[in-house]
């Protein structure tokens, strides 16, 4: 893609930052399988997305703010990724070693180093960071070590674009969050298994303390003076759980849903469970725009992706086709296949199975 069109896409994203909202969860099954799942939202219209297949040996480069080629790298591991806006930017993906990575928008709180042309050949833009991670590494520690030798920067030299932060997860279940604060990378072990957007990860963890009273099940009976009080309906223990679509509220809700969910026997059952949990984070059109200015689009949740790191299968569904589709990395010969990309939806239409009535 030409430099001018890349800049145009990035500026479009920058203007639409208030419409972005992503929610991610990590799950494990009883058989030890590791599952990463997330939504990606854009409320300002259709976010054209595709899946890309990157073979071993594919040569790639990063864009830079001054229009020159930045960091160049060759794929060590075959990768499948889901992109946003252009097939150059992988927002979520997994490689053949089971390493998973995804970007989440992080407006107003992160900051990269300023781009310095002196380090052009070491510069990697944030929106291509997932591409680099998945094609180069098998573990989080490898990413940490290699990060010392590159400069992560934003693409737009005028600073109009927002920052992102990342979730990186190993096949064995270790999950970290990476954030750049004042140009310095910070890695956080993600014990709660959740990531959304701003503020920073540690702020979200602290904010969970505001909901110390929540618990699964029913609240106990109580008294108010001489009046006896009892729950009106089920799940009263979660009364007070925030239900809006802001990032802090989604983090709290995801943390409680994820950490009260039962651990299921198999990877496939847990994949289905992840989709069910994330259904609660679908953002309907209409709540993020003034009345009468709502785009004609079924949902701000453009797609939902679930990665089975243990069995190397990526599942996804979209706003315009809720049929779950899968890509099995085991069936791809990354040593022979050519680079390719395909739209997530061949046909943008809901799949409906008609039930035919039988007469005895």
Quick overview:
The protein has 360 residues and is α+β, with helices and mostly antiparallel strands. It has six helices and 21 strands.
Which tags fit this structure?
7-stranded antiparallel beta sheet, 8-stranded antiparallel beta sheet, 30% strand, 6 helices, Penicillin V Acylase, Chain A, 21 strands, alpha+beta, 360 residues
Can you walk through the features of this model?
This protein has 360 residues and is α+β, with helices and mostly antiparallel strands. The chain has a single domain, classed as 4-Layer Sandwich (Penicillin V Acylase, Chain A). It has six helices and 21 strands. It has helices at residues 3-15, 129-136, 140-147, 201-207, 247-260, 267-279; strands at residues 20-21, 24-28, 34-42, 50-54, 59-61, 72-74, 79-84, 86-95, 100-105, 123-125, 151-153, 164-169, 175-181, 184-189, 194-195, 222-224, 227-229, 301-308, 313-318, 321-328, 340-343. A hairpin with a 4-residue loop joins strand 18 and strand 19. The longest helix has 14 residues, at 247-260. It is globular. Residues 14-18 have low confidence and may be disordered.
Please bin the fraction of helical residues: 10-25%
Rg calculated over all Cα atoms: 21 Å
Care to count the β-strands? Answer: 21
CATH superfamily: Penicillin V Acylase, Chain A
Q: What is the beta-strand fraction? A: 25-35%
How would you describe the shape?
Answer: globular
- The tally of helices reads 6
- Secondary-structure-based class equals alpha+beta
From the 3D coordinates, which CATH architecture would you assign? 4-Layer Sandwich
CATH topology heading? Penicillin V Acylase, Chain A
């Amino acid at each position: 893609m030409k430099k001018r069109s890349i800049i145009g896409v990035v500026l479009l994203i920058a203007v639409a930052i208030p419409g972005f909202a992503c929610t991610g969860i990590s799950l494990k099954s009883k058989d030890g399988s590791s599952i990463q799942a997330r939504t990606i939202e854009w409320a300002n219209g259709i976010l054209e997305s595709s899946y890309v297949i990157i073979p071993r040996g594919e040569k790639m480069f990063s864009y830079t703010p001054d229009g020159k080629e930045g960091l160049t790298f060759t794929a060590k591991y075959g990768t499948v990724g889901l992109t946003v806006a252009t097939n150059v930017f992988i927002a979520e993906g997994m490689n053949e070693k089971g390493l998973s990575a995804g970007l989440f928008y992080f407006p107003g709180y992160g900051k990269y180093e300023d781009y310095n042309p002196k380090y052009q050949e070491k510069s990697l833009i944030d929106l291509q960071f997932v591409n680099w991670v998945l094609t180069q590494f098998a573990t989080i520690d490898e990413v940490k070590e290699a990060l010392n030798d590159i400069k992560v920067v934003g693409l737009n030299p005028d600073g109009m674009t927002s920052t992102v932060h990342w979730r990186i997860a190993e096949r064995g279940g270790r999950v970290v969050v990476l954030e750049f604060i004042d140009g310095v990378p910070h890695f956080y072990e993600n014990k709660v298994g959740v990531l959304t957007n701003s503020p920073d990860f540690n702020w979200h963890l602290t904010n969970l303390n505001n909901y110390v009273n929540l618990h699964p099940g029913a609240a106990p009976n109580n008294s108010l003076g001489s009046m006896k009080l009892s729950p009106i309906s089920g799940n009263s223990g979660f009364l007070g759980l925030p239900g809006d679509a802001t990032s802090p509220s989604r983090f709290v809700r995801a943390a409680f849903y994820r950490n009260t969910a039962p651990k299921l026997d198999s990877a496939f059952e847990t994949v289905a469970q992840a989709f069910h949990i994330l259904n609660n984070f679908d953002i309907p059109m209409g709540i993020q725009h003034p009345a009468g200015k709502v785009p004609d689009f079924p949902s701000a949740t453009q797609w939902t992706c679930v990665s089975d790191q243990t069995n190397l299968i990526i599942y996804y569904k979209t706003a315009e086709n809720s049929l779950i589709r899968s890509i099995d990395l085991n069936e791809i010969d990354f040593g022979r296949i050519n680079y390719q990309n395909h739209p997530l939806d061949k046909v943008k239409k809901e799949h409906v199975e008609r039930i035919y009535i039988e007469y005895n």
